[in-house]
Write a structure and sequence with these properties.
17% of the residues lie in helices and 31% in strands. With 305 residues, the protein is α+β, with helices and mostly antiparallel strands.
Length: 305
């Protein structure tokens, strides 16, 4: 079923078989507040308390049609980015040439170092293929990839930063999205913003579906860019031309789990944050205002949410 359902995903990672000792205590579906301080180079360097997300086998499907059924849960992970003042935004100036932004970013990708430590647990007596989903935000947009209906026979989940695993029965997998991974995710989001804001994408969106598919496949480009194996330093001809000279930093992300069958699975993460600029993140315990959700969402053309 997975091979058939993930038709566009043949180029993705095959699910990775992993597992270790059982971990059965991850169904607290609450988002803990951010802000446990740790040793670091700045006062606002910190590690978040554990953030937990779970999926139960009693949940209704997130999406279903004759070709594909998906089960999915997500929650918002807001990073404690300091809210810019009017003076901060004025000082940032206009958008640099070649960027998709309405102004210069307040938070740059080079202003932060992020690491996400995760544990995915399978509480069932059979193995499950589980996708870890990271749909990034910056101060301008929140990525919501959705589903694309390609034809009567093919429905495709569009890409965020999606990592597949096969988690054995009553086992878990531990891992880390490194600072390089998270920096790459910021570049991917900026590049996709460039794709979807380009004159080619706008012209294709104004044409009929047939012309769109033949002239400029913005959805296909976005999916290619977001594939984890495609990196900004790999000189991919479908990725490299869209990388802007200035990249906005990540202000948060939607954390998710996805399966193609009902399952009892969960994830727990912590995020280690280093403020490389020195004043872009709110220190632990501070009541300073934070940047919050981006003002708009960004999705591939025609995506179903």
């Amino acid at each position: 079923m997975i091979a058939r359902s993930w038709s566009i995903s043949a180029g993705r990672h095959a699910p990775i078989p992993v597992g270790s000792r059982p971990r059965l205590a991850l169904f607290a579906l609450s988002l803990a507040g951010l802000g446990v301080a740790c040793n670091g180079s700045g006062a606002s360097d910190q590690v978040t308390p554990p953030i937990d997300l779970g999926m139960t086998s009693k949940m209704a499907s997130f999406y279903s049609d004759p070709n594909l059924t998906l089960y999915q849960v997500q929650l918002q992970v807001r990073l404690p980015v300091r809210r810019p003042t009017a003076s901060d935004l004025s000082s940032a100036g206009p958008a640099p040439k070649g960027t998709p932004y309405p102004r210069a970013p307040y938070l740059l990708a080079d202003d932060e170092s992020l690491e996400v430590h995760y544990t995915i647990s399978n509480l069932d007596a059979q193995e499950h293929a589980v996708w870890l989903l990271v749909d990034p935000w910056n101060e301008f947009v929140r990525w919501q990839p959705g589903i694309s209906v390609v034809s009567d026979e093919q429905t495709t989940p569009n890409m965020g930063y999606d990592l597949p695993f096969v988690v054995p029965a009553q086992s878990r997998v531990d891992g880390t999205l490194t600072s390089d991974d998270m920096h790459e995710i910021a570049i991917k989001l900026a590049s996709v913003e460039n794709v979807l804001g380009s004159p080619q994408a706008k012209a294709a969106a104004a044409a009929d579906a047939g012309v769109m598919a033949q002239s400029f496949d913005a959805t296909g480009l976005a999916n290619n860019i977001f594939m984890p194996q495609n990196r900004s330093n790999g000189y991919d001809p479908l990725y490299t031309p869209w990388i802007p000279p200035v990249v906005a930093g990540l202000t948060g992300f939607d954390l998710g789990l996805r399966t193609t069958e009902a399952a009892n699975v969960a994830i727990e993460i912590t995020v280690a944050i280093k403020d490389l600029n020195g004043d872009r993140f709110v220190a632990s315990g501070s009541t300073d205002p934070q940047i919050g959700l981006p003002p708009r969402t960004l999705s591939p053309p025609g995506a179903r949410m």
